[in-house]
Amino acid sequence: MKVRVVFLVIFVGAALFAGGSACVNNNEPVIKEWTRIIDGKTVHFMTIDGIMVHETDQAKQPLPVVVTPGKEPGDAPSDAVVLFDGSSESFKNWTDTNGGQTKWILKDGAMEPTKKSGYIQTKQEFGSCQLHIEWATPEKVKGNGQGRGNSGVFFMGYEIQMLDSYENTTYADGQAGALYGRKKPLINACRKPGQWQSYDVIFHQPVFDADGNVLRKATFTVLHNGVLIQDHYVLSGGTGWRGPHSVTNYHPHADKLPLQIQDHGNPVKFRNVWIREL
Ligand code: MG
């Protein structure tokens, strides 16, 4: 009997310990509750992260910063970094992957790769962010599968696939909106070839410890043409090509890196790119 009790204590202790460590989450708010008798009535009080619910003292609970939204849906809000707005000035925000002048071209207010021009990347570096980007695959359809309107946007090296996935079948985790090789999109919201499409992305970067272990994995929420296609998805590793049936693992990297767009040999064009650091 005594042995059983000892085992039970160890088991419950271990379960509590495991549960406690599993609950470690940076986004988990700390909630405290208590009651007080006011004018003979019981009043419930609650603080969330040390701030009283419905606190009106702005010294204790500052109001959110006012941001002016863009005029039309998709337009940059007042606090965004405009990475590309069709102007030659904003095109200067981009370089090749060595920081040199890109061979991409500016044409009719859009930027697009030229033959063997390679990836394009921002001069400024980013970590967790909200991104808006518009892209269009060639109106004249050429090729199929992965060879049709292929590009991609890379957040610290993690790719959201761009592809002409309008009546164009390929492996699900490589079609438009896929986290390449890791997660297919929830649905296929692709517009017809040649039409402008948008991605709105909320990306939270992975966190590594000093030894390069992943402390917190990256997450992606993605809207494709306004439709949810990735729902706060926890990325299990890298998205780099490692062969026909395998992608790269996590490798520790800097806290901020350039945003990149892929040149996959297809003339995909881009416009209206803006970002907000989170
Ligand atoms: Mg791609």
| Structural class designation | mainly beta
Q: Could you state the order of secondary-structure elements as H and E? A: HEEEEHEEEEEEEEEEEEEE
Look at the structure and give the mean pLDDT. 92
- CATH homologous superfamily of the largest domain? Exo-inulinase, domain 1
How do the strands of the widest beta sheet line up side by side? 4-18-9-12-15-16
CATH topology of the largest domain: Jelly Rolls
Radius of gyration: 24 Å
As residue ranges, the low-confidence spans are 5-24
Helix content: under 10%
How many angstroms does the end-to-end distance come to? Answer: 56 Å
Count the strands? 18
Total of helices: 2
Q: Structurally, how many domains make up the residues?
A: 2
Provide the CATH architecture of the largest domain. Sandwich
Overview features:
278 residues; binds magnesium ion; mainly beta; 2 domains; 2 helices; single chain; 18 strands; Jelly Rolls
Q: What does this molecule look like?
A:
This protein is mainly beta and 278 residues long. It folds into 2 domains: 28-63, no CATH class; 81-277, Exo-inulinase, domain 1 (Jelly Rolls). It is built from 2 helices and 18 strands. A 6-stranded antiparallel beta sheet has the order 4-18-9-12-15-16, with no helix packed on it. Strands 5-8-17-10-11 form a 5-stranded antiparallel beta sheet, with no helix packed on it. A hairpin with a 2-residue loop joins strand 10 and strand 11. The relative contact order is 0.17. Bound molecules: magnesium ion. Magnesium ion (MG) binds next to strand 10.
